[in-house]
Amino acid sequence: MAAALVLVGLSVAAPTVAQAATTTTYSLSAPTSVRLGSSATMKATWFTRGTGATGTVALQKYAGSTWVKVASVKLVAGRGSVSITPTATARYRLHSSKHTSAAKTVQVVRNWLSLGPTSASIKAGSAVTLSMRLTLNGKPAAGNVLLQRKSGSTWVTVSRLPVAATGSTTVVRPTVTTSYRLARSGVVSLTRTVTVDRDWAALTFSSRSLPSSGSPTTATATWYAAGKKANGTITLQQRIGSGSWTTAARIAVTDGTGSVTVKPASTRAYRLLAGSTSSPSVTVTVAVVIPTSFTINGSGFGHGIGMSQYGAYAMAQAGYTASGILKHYYTGVGVAQAAMPTAALSVQVYGPDASNSSYDDRTTSTSATVHGGGWRLRDNQVDPETGKAGSTVAYGTSTQTVGFKVAAGGKVSATIDGTVVSTDTVLRLHWKSTSYYSPSTTTDIYATVAGAQGSYRHGRLTVRNIGGLINVVNDLQLNTEYLYGIAEMPSSWGTKGAAALQAQVTAARSYALLKYQGGIKSSCACHIVDDVRDQNFTGWKKENEGTDGYYGKIWKKAVDATVSGTQGLLLTYGGEPVIAHYYSASGGGTLNSEDVWSAVVPYERSVDDPWSLKSTSGNPNVTWTATLSQAAARSYFGLPDVMSISVATYEGGGIRAMKATSSWGDTKTITGKSDALRSKLNAIADGYVKAPWIRSFKPVLPG
User: Fold this and answer.
1) 173/194 Cα distance (integer angstroms)
2) Does the domain made of 112-197 have the CATH classification 2.60.40.10?
3) Per-domain residue ranges for the chain?
4) Alpha carbon distance, N-terminus to C-terminus of the chain
């Protein structure tokens, strides 16, 4: 062993022979094989009593019968390495003056096969390309090789393939996870495994970038189950932003493929789902998003001409008088006591109206019941004792129902307990404690009419046959008895704002007086009707409202506060009574009469109305919303779609025009009177368009 390496400069004290045998580790690690032309890293370790040595040792190779040095290995803290390029199989060891490691044999491989890639993952039905190289004597070579796959524990030849010196490729399509190798004359390559996903789905679209909402695109599904092309139904899901996945469609798949056309309203992601199998998501962008609907934002309730009732209530709480309230809402009017008619005002409470059939009571019979006291029924014949029309045909002292029915010859008949008691052109029902029969204010006797909305404490009921239909009128005093029954404003407001009730009474009186002065209408044998065509009249229901008539008394007190003897507080313009329109609440300003309907009324001018919007008004309609669908908007404006709707207004804020713009830039403007535009919108909207103060149409986007 003449070539023994002398250890140079080691910092570890030399141990005795006995110590070295028990406390020193001295070893070489090396690869078992290396390809010809490739390098091999040889690693050395030297530790004595747990401390690593620092210095240099020799790496030796056994050549023939002699160990020769091939490299020096520098050790630091007991470890070191060196790279060599062997040309033949040989044995190697470490050597120093006192130590020699065990020998390691490094085999030099001269011939080998290469198969790539090192790993691959595909979906069933897909292919993977394998690269092949042949090396002989360390140099690229051409020749034939065997491509093999593992079946159980056995390698099975798939094909015999030629390989060029520059390398070649082959394509495989495994249906299950498969391991491959190359073989030639006892030389085999490393094993390469191709992992196969047997259950998968993929989604594609004919276009993933759409110009606008509703544009079509075709979604195509590819679906494999258990490694085979699937047949069945797979779910197409959609998600907007970070929202939840929802079902967009179901796709019928045949032989692994199916499609469906979708029209996304906005940008969204899609994926396929079948059991636990899902596809990667695919995003379809929509450049122009068309609203699904529009939220109509509005304010107020009613037509907008004249007095706002909620506004009047807020003004009353702020200290305004009834006169001050009326003069605010009606331009240039006078408010003063004036003489009232002593003859009766006739109010239709049940019967026909040719001008508005939606309010008709078009029947040939009804009945009236007197509650709580005496009554009498009179016909239209001359009383021989008084010489006046009206003879008593029946009477009673307690609750009684009288049936009325249309009779031949334009007459009407009355029936009590199944017996006809009179037939005449006119029949009248009186009850005690009225101006027509034993006047008194101490008893609460009243009448009701089947099908009518009110009950009647004052006056009398007059029954006629009008055009073959039964007609019932309540004849009573305009200045007090009629106004006691006007149900146009909450009586409870009188506890905080009595002036508002008095303003309402005055407006109602002025309206009724003009109707009285217009004379009896033949269509109803009346001056005025009891519903919103004129004024809402419920009679005793209003006057007796609340427990023990608590609220009714408040309302009656407000009426009485506007009465002075036979006079009543009246609203006039140019000295003449006016038809004073009123409504629930404005949207911040009242409207000119001609902007809502047609005629210019000089005292019904637009005025600011902040009172309707004050919190003290209690107005529940300071804001409200309704919905106009995209379909309704398209139809209404006659456009292919509607992207936006802008609003133009009259003085006071009532809607004057609506301008719609389509996604193509086309526009359509619809103009008209405020109430007509409101009515048209209300007919096509979801929800109630309550008033002409429409602030905006807010687009509601998909999702």
Assistant:
1) 9
2) yes
3) 17-108, 112-197, 201-286, 290-306+582-703, 335-581
4) 88
Tokens at 503, concatenated: 């303003």
Alpha-carbon distance 326 to 320, whole Å? 10
The CATH homologous superfamily for domain 17-108 is Macroglobulin (MG2) domain (2.60.40.1930)
Match 């004050």 to its residue by tokens: 614
> Could you tell me if 452 and 350 are in contact, meaning their C-beta atoms sit under 8 angstroms apart?
yes
Q: Are strands 644-649 and 624-629 parallel, antiparallel or unpaired?
A: unpaired
Distances (CA, A) of 100 to 25, 37, 71: 10, 28, 15
List of residues 6+ apart from 409 with CB closer than 8 A: none
The reply to whether the predicted model has a pTM over 0.70 is: no
Classify 32 as helix, strand or coil: coil
In the DSSP assignment, the letter for residue 659 is E
123-125-129 Cα angle (round to 5): 75
- For domain 201-286, the question of CATH label 2.30.30.320 is answered with no
For 483, the 3-state DSSP assignment is helix
Look up residue 631 and give its amino acid: A
Q: Evaluate the CA torsion angle 81, 86, 92, 93 in order and state its sign.
A: negative
Q: Which two tokens stand for residue 87?
A: 């040309």
Distance, CA of 433 to CA of 297 (rounded, Å)? 51
User: In a 3-state reduction of DSSP, which class is residue 127?
Assistant: coil
Mean pLDDT by 10 residues, the chain (703 residues): 33 44 84 94 94 95 94 96 95 93 95 94 94 95 96 96 97 95 95 96 97 92 96 95 92 97 91 96 94 97 97 98 97 96 96 79 95 93 69 91 96 96 96 90 87 96 96 97 97 96 97 95 95 94 95 97 96 93 96 95 97 97 97 94 95 97 89 96 96 96 78
Question: Under 8 Å CB-to-CB from 349, ≥6 apart: which residues?
Answer: 449, 452, 453, 454, 456, 461, 472, 473, 474, 530, 537, 539
Which sign does the torsion angle of CA 675, 681, 684, 685 carry? negative
* Residue whose token pair is 């499609």: 259
Cα atoms in the 13 Å half-sphere on the side-chain side of 542: 25
Token pair for residue 201?
Answer: 């789905």
Largest CA distance in the chain: 170
Q: How far apart are CA 4 and CA 67, in angstroms?
A: 8
Task: Give the type of residue at 404.
Answer: F
CB distance 109 to 188 below 8 Å: no
Please determine whether the domains at 17-108 and 112-197 fall in the same fold group of CATH: yes
* Closest CA relative to residue 525, chosen from 456, 457, 428: 428
Contact 179, 149 (CB under 8 A): yes
Q: Rounded to whole angstroms, how far apart are CA atoms 200 and 230?
A: 10
